[in-house]
Write a structure and sequence with these properties.
The protein has 395 residues and is an alpha+beta fold. It folds into three domains: 118 residues, Orthogonal Bundle (Butyryl-Coa Dehydrogenase, subunit A, domain 1), CATH 1.10.540; 108 residues, Butyryl-CoA Dehydrogenase, subunit A, domain 2; 147 residues, Butyryl-CoA Dehydrogenase, subunit A, domain 3. Helix content is 51%, strand content 13%. It is built from twelve helices and eight strands. A four-stranded mixed beta sheet has the order 1-4-5-8, with helices on one face. Strands 2-3-7-6 form a four-stranded antiparallel beta sheet, covered by helices on one side. A hairpin with a 4-residue loop joins strand 2 and strand 3. Bound molecules: flavin-adenine dinucleotide. Flavin-adenine dinucleotide binds next to helix 5, strand 1, strand 3, helix 11 and helix 12.
Amino acid sequence: MSESRNQRQDSQGPTAEKVPDPAELRLTRQFAGQHLHPGRPASGFDLSGWQLMFDRGLFNPAPGQSHNIRRTAHLLKALGGGGADRGLLFAAGAHYFGCTYPVIRFGSPSQHQQWLPSLQTGRLIGCLAITEEGGGSGQSALATQVQAQADNLRLSGAKLFVTNAPVASVALVIASEWPQRGSLGLSAFLVPLDAPGVSVVPMNSMGLAGAPAGVVRLNDVCLPPSARLGAPGAGLAVMLSALRAERTALLSGFLGAAEFDLARCYQFLQSRFSVGQKSGAAVPQVLQHRLASIRCELAAAEALLDRGLDEVDHGGDALLWPAMVKKTVSETVASVADQIHQIYAGQGWLNLHESATAVLDTRAVLAASGTSEVMLNMIWSQLARTLTPLEFSTP
Ligand SMILES: Cc1cc2nc3c(=O)[nH]c(=O)nc-3n(C[C@H](O)[C@H](O)[C@H](O)COP(=O)(O)OP(=O)(O)OC[C@H]3O[C@@H](n4cnc5c(N)ncnc54)[C@H](O)[C@@H]3O)c2cc1C
């Protein structure tokens, strides 16, 4: 993420926090190296790492200032660059972009008062519950339904794959209020996970052990009207706002983590090829080129991420840029993890350098926040509106 853009603020107004300067980013990387890296590879949610991150104020704006997506993305990337576990970064991103940020954007003053102090300091963990058994790719026909009664709301349904659910206190739930209106009939609700009728069942997964996921069951849950986030029928806007932030910024931590892994891989190769040599044994050129090529892939993904953050800041197309960033960054970090794992060869198979963990962790993000196929659908639908056939003159 470029230096010039470091000087900008986002469009949330004059009170938006500045993005971190290079010194803050360096300190954040050092913090991750000292306090978050020793916990790798994670075998579960790292509550003490979580608290240290939030106690440091990483996701808690300074008094009188509001947080922004760009700042959070920079900090996540620095944490990844310092060696923080991908699961912890993913959990923090799901908490911030999937729950805290929509509360900031759509919450009433009393909802801000009720939720933000504890969400922004990490004392409460949040999650975003959209996906259902019928599939996460199409969200217009949700089976989770809400009925507004005279003085309360009643919510029933089940949500799958909810990141953080087993450790969270509150879920932002998207439900259908007027099923016949499709996506325009959706509404959003802040549901305390200890409310009567709510149960959470952890889901086993292949990777991202540090970001536990679960099924959230809602069995005729009775909520006060104040649980509604945004206006009735604003569920689509709330959901898209959260997904837009997630798709654009959540994987910045994974780009940082890929850079960390690249540096570690180079260290491994240097020691591997100096074994038994007098001095100056070179890493074979074919491997030097592999590392150089990985660096190019990361730089390209980072540049697109930076552009995506710009578009989000300046009210750019809500679907196109987040989809392009999500598709490109998720595929890049997965490809880089595969390549680095291959370089470790037998030591990779033994997961001695956590390269197998990285392969599985990065597989997860190919589906999270929407698959590449669904991102391509969005990109194409925007493209189809703007592409015009070229006119060729025949000689
Ligand atoms: C690590 C992880 C974290 C997650 N966190 C959350 C979370 O916090 N909250 C939450 O609500 N959900 C979460 N999810 C769910 C995620 O959003 C869904 O997995 C994703 O949207 C895909 O839905 P699905 O898995 O049901 O696949 P499906 O929708 O069933 O898709 C199956 C296949 O069909 C393809 N497909 C479907 N529709 C189309 C189409 N129209 N065009 C082309 N191809 C299509 C898909 O690309 C995919 O290959 C998470 C998932 C993962 C893996």
